[in-house]
Design brief:
Elements (H helix, E strand, L loop, with lengths): L1 E6 L5 H12 L2 E4 H10 L3 H12 L5 H12 L8 E4 L5 H9 L6 E6 L2 H9 L1 E3 L6 E3 L26 H15 L1 H7 L4 E6 L4 H13 L1
Parallel strand pairs: 1-3, 1-4, 2-3, 4-7
Antiparallel strand pairs: 5-6
The chain binds BIS(adenosine)-5'-pentaphosphate.
The site of BIS(adenosine)-5'-pentaphosphate has 34 residues, from helix 1, helix 2, helix 3, strand 6 and helix 9.
């Protein structure tokens, strides 16, 4: 099964991707995590990518598409994969078609903008793995530390009010048109109410996958 998680920044894609990966054994591909990793490398590309991440704008298609298509060719994707954060605009969606990468299911995590600000400002992440927590709604076992490695959690630099505003406007202008793009395709498109608790959203996703 090849699956796409669509939704606003902060809707809970990364949180749910972890459960889906564990439950269904799919390769979990987060282009945000890929870009954060590139930005930490010592290269000219790192400096460029970092400037997009910190401003909340999209990394240009010519950088990201080839990287993603190559990633999907890897062996761990043979039994299916889950895309978190890709595609982000119509050209990226069409690039999957052009590369003959078929998608079986699109899960759209739907949520109101008001909810997003509180989710993002309370988010803490484990940078190396991308695991994401929330200080109130999804806290780690030990305050400030990752459950699995015990390493310190950080606050993402793009989780500040100015950059969140920019990321939301990028979402409306560039990513939202993908909803119609996928609704009009011959695949399963399911809208999930992502304003519910983490567990309730996970249950809805399980049901959607099994029907
Ligand atoms: P990316 O890392 O993909 O960020 P995003 O799409 O903005 O999504 P987030 O990671 O912010 O949110 P999420 O939906 O995963 O929410 P989460 O589960 O963490 O991209 C970052 C940047 O990389 C982009 O701005 C761009 O520059 C670049 N980039 C990435 N992909 C690209 C592409 N394809 N093309 C070009 N550029 C690209 O949850 C958020 C918080 O809410 C957490 O604290 C969590 O614990 C909490 N939470 C989750 N679910 C619930 C719930 N049900 N109830 C209460 N709290 C919850």
């Amino acid at each position: 099964m090849n699956l796409i998680l669509l939704g606003m920044p902060g809707a809970g894609k990364g949180t749910q991707a972890e459960f889906i990966q564990k439950d269904y054994g799919l390769a979990n591909i987060s282009t945000g995590a890929m870009m954060r990793e590139v930005s930490r490398s010592n290269s000219e590309l790192a400096t460029r990518v970092q400037s997009y991440l910190s401003s909340g704008t999209l990394v240009p298609n010519e950088i990201i598409i080839e990287m993603l298509v190559e990633r999907i060719q890897k062996e761990d994707c043979a039994n299916g994969f889950l895309l978190d954060g890709f595609p982000r605009n119509l050209d990226q969606g069409k690039a999957l078609d052009d590369a003959n990468i078929s998608i079986d299911l699109v899960l759209y995590l739907s949520i109101k903008e008001e909810e997003i600000i509180s989710r993002m400002s309370g988010r803490r992440v484990h940078l190396a793995s991308g695991r994401s927590y929330h200080i109130l709604h999804n806290p780690p076992k030990k305050d400030g530390f990752d459950d699995v490695t015990g390493e310190a959690l950080i606050q993402r630099e793009d989780d500040n009010p100015e950059v969140i505003k920019k990321r939301l406007s990028v979402y409306y202008n560039e990513t939202e048109p993908l909803l119609e793009f996928y609704k009009n395709k011959n695949l399963k498109f399911i809208e999930i109410d992502a304003s519910k608790s983490v567990d309730v959203v996970t249950d809805s996703i399980r049901q959607s996958i099994s029907t």
